[in-house]
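Can anyone check this?
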Amino acid sequence: MSIQLNTLSQSSLQDYNDCPRRFELRYLQQLAYPAIETEPALENEKHLKEGEYFHRLAQQHFIGIPAEQVSKLANTDNLQRWWDNFTNATDLSSLTSSPKGKDLPGLKTEITLSAPLGKFRLVAKYDLIAFGGEKIYIYDWKTYRKRPKNEWLAVRWQTRVYRALLVQAGAHLNGGKSIQPEQIEMIYWFPDFPNDPARFDYKADQFKRDWDALTKLADEITTASSFPKTDEVSKCSYCPYRSYCNRGIRAGDALDAELETEAEELFDINFEQIGEIEF
């Protein structure tokens, strides 16, 4: 039995792009995961929890909680390394400190934006949006264990959705002034690769292309009568629904899988409900 879907996000759009059948099972039928996504499962689960918790540390830092207080919560080896790299990164420290006489950029952390998209609402939750002069920076924290290629990130729906949606729905964050694509730069910042962030500018023609593609995709989902399985069988190793499709039993390697699968739950983090993580 299908469930009425009202919103689309970068995660659901990426699922539809990668495999319409996965999209159907996850978002329309909302089936429980019958198979382990990656191997080794427990190690990967621990890494995901640490990634969620790192987002909380960053959020607390940017709302003004002293770094020494936040650092006490970095209670695993990974979290401590990530936090040390985070607090020592000059490109990030400039967001909360400024030369005398210069204004600090306006910081919006854990902000959700939405806009109509066909019969849906397109929704995105931003880790950090920084307003500095005429430039607007989108920061997204990625706790990947492998540094992905910029070419791979450039075509991901997250990169396209986050920039386009900020143009479409971000004016209220900018004093009511429309945001122009050329003002935007999206930055993926990797705690394990602090000196090698991925940066993506934006232009008006890219925005038009992205919004047209999003509109077309939303219409396609609305009118779809079937949701076929992907022809790229290699993706099935990282899919928790592979047993529904007779696409194998063994899960894929966690290092590769984290680049192919990002749990939708990360989009809905409620930081007030995350307790102390025990390992």
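Reply from J.R.: I decoded it. The longest helix spans residues 41-62.
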